[in-house]
Structures
1.
Amino acid sequence: MSIAVKMVDIIKTFPGITANDKINFDVRRGEVHGLLGENGAGKTVLMNILYGMYRLDDGLIFVNGKEAKIDSSAAAIKLGIGMVHQHFMLVASLTVAENIVLGREPTKHRWLLDVGRIEDQIKALSDRYKLGVDPKTVACDLPVGLQQRVEILKALFRGAEVLILDEPTSSVDVSVRAQLLNMFQDLQRDLGLTYMFISHDLSVVECISHRVAVMYLGKIVEQAKTEEIYKNPMHPYAQALFNSIPIPDPTRRRERAPLLGEPPSPVNPPSGCRFHPRCSLATNTCEHEEPPLIDVGNEHYVACFALSK
Ligand SMILES: Nc1ncnc2c1ncn2[C@@H]1O[C@H](COP(=O)(O)OP(=O)(O)OP(=O)(O)O)[C@@H](O)[C@H]1O
Ligand SMILES: [Mg+2]
């Protein structure tokens, strides 16, 4: 299966914070790649780099096998990348159609638009994929759940084949969540789209993803096929994360170690393995050296010294 997006040694810092620290990330065409990790792990920053909203400090991005310079969202869109943002990005005073074609610079090209024709095109797209969006609705009047559909429609209208979905179901209630998830899944399968899917909801990620990566303080600490990582998480942080999924049977208990201590600050993160202060397996080496992401077989990658010894 070919690689749609390859991110190599991505580094992104803000003053005092290394949000992405040498991240390597491959996304296969036609697959859904889940991204998990607690608040501040660097998920949104990584995806914003891919969508051209942040400049990387170092590293390379390849799209469809070719090196890509993504220095703006326009550049990302040209390469077929779309994004459903974690925070509502539509301009409230504009209609759906205007949002879809104008983005966040509405005054710039408004006079050029043949609004009627564009509305027809968007309506046709919405009908074809059963999105239920009326292009004439003003964005501020959109019910919750339709905002995400507009963002999807926007990406499809602009020809996206790779879609970044950053917490697309976190702001909606359970019934809308299920509908949205079904819609994302149907579109992905029908159109052969590639998704990068970020969520804090472990069951949502399990349901939609083919593969999952777990991030911790700017690093990917584990990555594997979904079934594999949910059944057999190896990194102590991933174990603690999956450990937090409630087990419906009260007579059963999970065997894995809980997380120690408080989440660390991203400002001046711990030396060596960034997880070591909270890890029950940490040794002297973990304090001083960074564990590389190692292939442990079956396309399962883990960054932990305790496992390679
Ligand atoms: N524009 C910015 N300026 C300074 N620091 C930033 C900026 N954007 C992100 N950061 C910092 O980078 C780190 C990673 O942030 P990011 O938003 O990627 O986390 P996340 O994994 O998406 O978390 P969440 O699950 O809360 O969305 C955080 O420490 C955050 O404070
Ligand atoms: Mg985020």
2.
Amino acid sequence: MKVILSSKLEDRIKAVKSLDKDVPSLLPDAVAYPKNEDEILELVEHCIEEHIPLIPKGGGMSSAKGLLPLKGGIIIDMTSMNRKIEEDDNTITLEAGSHFHNPRVYPTLWKYSTVGGNFCGGSWGIGSYKYGPNWDQVIEVTMVNPRGKLVKLRGGDTKIAAHAEGTTGIVTRLRMLKLNKEIHAKMIVFNSVSEAIQYSEKIYENNYPLYHMVLRSPEIAKLSIGPDKWHLIVAYEEDEEFKDGVDASQIWENRDKFFAGVFYENFSKAYYTTYHFDFPLDPKILKGITEVEFANDNKAHVDFMTFSKEELDNIKKSFGKSSFDVEDIYINSRLSKEHIRKIIQYKKMYDKEDLFNPGKLQF
Ligand SMILES: Cc1cc2nc3c(=O)[nH]c(=O)nc-3n(C[C@H](O)[C@H](O)[C@H](O)COP(=O)(O)OP(=O)(O)OC[C@H]3O[C@@H](n4cnc5c(N)ncnc54)[C@H](O)[C@@H]3O)c2cc1C
């Protein structure tokens, strides 16, 4: 085979190192470093014949156990496939292991993530207030499917690969819509959490034409950037306006220090969980190191972080099972019925043996 393969212990350990907490001593048998689609096709053909599991990996920032090699096999490190294929006024086509270029929607950890890893393992992010989940920005996906064929998914079919964690194929390139506008940001500071929630819900209900909106607690600001009070950051495109608040361009420039960035900085000692709550939000639930991101799915995406396992357990006990449960090894509960149905249908048709990222999809 042409693809570079390593079974050195240090490479196998490095390949499972990610932001997934509680990573047990599960290691892949080898790590592959493909440079192009032909090498992936050859590798996939070999693995189908030999019944070897395959787990694709981008930047390793997954927070939902997506990279665990539950049945061993080969982790495919996609980061050498990072070329720009083509670009026009509105779209850009990138190899899956690329970083972001003018994205409409991207995760807080965009500096460390790949476009393929975010599409296959992420969901909502910066820009989702206006544009929705990351998969709505992707108009064509190229992937090597579990029959070893290079296929193109377009329109609604892109959901077969979106947040599927590689269970339906190895994504090799994505054609994505670009954001061609400058973003401005303002900040509104509040004296109490109730005031902050009331204000943000009013903006949300009035469908204000914002790009992004995030409500941050004093505690998260202390660990990163922002005032020692509840504050709302509103970001809007250059052709829009926002009357209230003060200029927040400095905080916006540091948006990699929003919630996921704070977790990343404190990874070894921090715990986190996430909930998607309906409106109206009860102010009593927002305590401690927390952030609320608003997206276009009529939910408040609330992230909680703590330095105590006991406190984390208390949070989980009081809110019950999350409707976006990152602790659940299966992707099923995190997606809409229609979305997961597409993934299951494809999986049943092409990968009954569950060789593609095994154990992550209930089907
Ligand atoms: C505290 C915290 C908060 C987070 N908040 C958000 C958030 O708000 N929004 C969000 O979208 N994400 C969020 N994330 C998750 C994660 O940071 C991002 O989704 C990130 O962009 C993943 O990209 P990556 O390249 O690191 O992917 P990886 O971690 O390498 O992979 C992610 C998943 O996709 C699969 N995969 C990777 N590449 C491919 C490929 N080429 N083909 C098929 N499957 C592939 C992997 O097997 C894995 O299951 C958060 C993470 C943390 C720790």
